[in-house]
Amino acid sequence: MNDIIIEPVLTEKASRIATEGRHYSFKVAKTANKLQIRKAIEERYPDIDVKEVRTMVVRGKRRRQFTKRGLLQGRQATWKKAIVTLRTGEIDFYESV
Fold first, then answer.
1. 70 partner at 20 to 30 Å CA-CA among 17, 44, 54, 77?
2. For 22-31, how does the pLDDT look when each residue is reduced to its tens digit (9 = 90+)?
């Protein structure tokens, strides 16, 4: 189950929705489904109860960089995001910092 949850998404919007309504965002494996994500979250954080899992595929953005040698073009990788709503409990990502 450790390979399903890659990392938490720590952006301003993710922090805001976490404080407003117990919604937490995670970067997950592309092949993971909602049931696997729910099980992995409940195993990693045993004191919480997951109410709902919503998933979305975030498309990679095109990137350009102008250098002395010319134009370099590339893409960011496409990844999958899961927004987990909790019934009970709370997740503190900053406790181990």
1. 77
2. 899 999 999 9
